Amino acid sequence: MATVNAVALLCFMTVFGISQGAQPIIGYNFGAKQYGRMEETYKIATWTGVVILSIALFLVEVFPATIVGLFNKNPDIMAISIHVMRIYLMAMPAIALGMSGNNYFLAIGE
Fold first, then answer.
1. Measured distance CA(97)–CA(50) in Å, rounded
2. Which positions ≥6 away from 11 have C-beta within 8 Å?
3. How far is it, in rounded angstroms, from Cα 107 to Cα 17?
4. Which of 41, 57, 59, 67 has the highest Cβ tally under 10 A?
5. Are 26 and 107 in contact (CB under 8 A)?
6. Distance between CA atoms of residues 1 and 72, nearest Å
7. Count of Cβ atoms closer than 10 Å to residue 20 Cβ
8. Other C-beta atoms lying within 10 Å of the C-beta of residue 79
9. Burial letters for 30-46: b for 16+ Cβ neighbours within 10 Å, e otherwise?
């Protein structure tokens, strides 16, 4: 499971950064009542995250042995990790929506 979590964190870190980087932009525009700019920033951050995590999901599905092999070479652990990683990371694109949504509401003080 440590291998799967390491892969997941590598995928999520980029989206964390994008989502947290959009937070002050959304907050400033909320304060300035520039709601159109807020919405545009939220959409860009969200869809960028969805695209990045969709690409990561594609790579996990197509090259699972190569990715797991970076962390562990034991064949038994690799077999289990590949199976679990494919299931565990299936929802990655949807997780980008949650990350952006959380930071959006933090930015507007809700």
1. 7
2. 52, 53, 56, 60, 89, 92
3. 15
4. 41
5. yes
6. 11
7. 16
8. 12
9. beeeeeeebeebbeebb
Amino acid at site 13 = M
Exposed / middle / buried, residue 57 (Cβ in 10 Å: 0-12, 13-18, 19+): middle
* Residue 70: exposure state from Cβ atoms within 10 A (0-12, 13-18, ≥19): exposed
DSSP label at residue 103 = H
Cα 36 to Cα 11: distance, rounded to the nearest angstrom: 30
Q: DSSP assignment of 41-85, as one string?
A: HHHHHHHHHHHHHHHHHHHHHHSHHHHHHTT---HHHHHHHHHHH
∠ Cα 49 51 55 (to 5°): 115
Place of tokens 């807020």: 38
Model confidence pLDDT, tens digit, residues 65-95: 998 899 888 899 889 989 998 888 888 888 8
Which pair of structure tokens corresponds to residue 90? 């299936």
DSSP secondary structure of 3-19:
HHHHHHHHHHHHHHHHH
Q: Which residue from 34, 18, 41, 31 is spatially nearest to 108, judged by alpha carbons?
A: 31
